Every structure is written in structure tokens, then in C-alpha cells.
Amino acid sequence: NLVQQLPKAIIIGVRKGGTRALLEMLNLHPAVVKASQEIHFFDNDENYAKGIEWYRKKMPFSYPHQITIEKSPAYFITEEVPERIYKMNSSIKLLIIVREPTTRAISDYTQVLEGKERKNKTYYKFEKLAIDPNTCEVNTKYKAVRTSIYTKHLERWLKYFPIEQFHIVDGDRLITEPLPELQLVEKFLNLPPRISQYNLYFNATRGFYCLRFNIVFNKCLAGSKGRIHPEVDTSVITKLRKFFHPFNQKFYQITGRTFNWP
Ligand code: A3P
User: In what residue span(s) does the Sulfotransferase domain sit (predicted)?
Assistant: First the structure.
């Protein structure tokens, strides 16, 4: 009696927030089954046109008592997505994992930079992209900056879903202390607490927590997770932090979750 079920919860973002780690760690729970790939159903018009049955068929097989979760971080920033998800299931649970916005932007940049380097292409320095050379102000047209203005995106979602349907995960804490963050998610998803410290062990070589499913099976995330960031000019970091500050305050106010972001 295995079935392919539509997700009961979706990790909608944020890109580079730790979306993969969150999905893999939630999958440690016996009642959670993950869609391994990013499906990009709601943000990609071509996929969306294929219809909900196409989406369902992309889901993994699970038992009826289990819940399916998928993650596609592009959902968070794509205009059409909230309405489309609402049309599928207006009571779906939405998970957003965030990191300190400047660190997230640099992580985003690092991923793009690595892609360019792989193709032997040169790329701008982060400082050049993040700061408008004419005004010397933060370049709000730069996508890595825009994505980190969490409140702007969340406000669009709130036109469709009440705040109670969202759970904010602290991506910085998921790196250093994953268990309490996962326990909060279990609660939010109404799951019995099943993920324990046994399931998470710190791997000093990787510098990250890895996952232990049972006595024989454990794994760390791929090497593309946990890249070394390039060093960024401190004045640029300060400028970005100052820029994000008011947006962060608004984000804390809306979500009811406060972070120690500078
Ligand atoms: P960095 O590469 O900047 O360190 P996403 O999956 O959304 O792309 O997020 C990637 C980020 O997940 C990584 O960013 C990394 O810091 C973070 N992360 C959190 N927990 C991790 C873990 N256990 N193993 C590897 N990366 C983890």
C-alpha cells in the first residue's frame, strides 16, 4: 500500500539557507519521506502547465501515515508561487530556513562563482556586484542582495497564507546545533519527537554535522554544501549589514522570531 502523496509541507526557501540540510535531517524522522530532487513545479511555468498529477508523480512512494516533503528554494522569491501553492492546498505547512542575510548573500555569490570557475569563466568580485559603483550604495538590483531581504518576499506570501502556517528555521543554528531546530520543526509538523542526538554526529573533517540513520547507514551532505567563502571587504560587509538591518527588524516583528543578526 505504498502511495505517491502530495507534500504536506514544503521547504520554500531560502536558497543557501541550509535547505538541503534541513530536508535531509527531517528525513531522519520515520514519518517523513523526502522528494530527493528539487521539483520546481510552482516556479517553472513549463512544469506547472503539466498539472498537479505530474507533480504528484514526482513524489516518492510512502505509506499513507507518512508525510511527504519537498524543497525548491526558488519558490520563496518567485512571484507566482504563493497563489499556485494556495490553489493546491490552502492549509499546507511552509518551512523557511534563513541565515544572517549578508552571510547568505555571500554564500549565494560563492555558489555562482564556483559555477563560473567550473566553466573556466572569470567573474566579478562580490564587492563589485553588491555595491553600486555610481552611488556607492548597496546594489538592490543584485539578486543575492534581493533574496536576503526576507521580509519583502514573506509579505507577498502573507497575502495568501496566515503567519501560523509558516515556520522559520534558524539556518545558522542548524549548522552548529541542529537538534533543537529539528525538534521545533517536529512540533510544527505535529510529528512525535523521533529525531535524537544519536541521528546527528559532528564530523570534524567536514566541519559539519552528518546524519546517522542507523547502525550501518550514515552520510554527510555533498561537498558543495559548506563551501569556503571568499574574503569580503569589511566596509562592504558593514554597509550590507546596515542595509539589511531595518528589513530584519520587520522580519522579526512579522514572524515573532528574533535573531541576533547585526
Ligand atoms: P555554505 O556553502 O555557504 O557554507 P542550501 O542547501 O540551501 O544550498 O544551503 C547550503 C548551506 O547549508 C551551506 O552553505 C552550509 O553552511 C549549510 N549547512 C547547514 N547544515 C549543514 C550540514 N550539516 N552540512 C553541510 N552544510 C550545511
Answer: 7-251
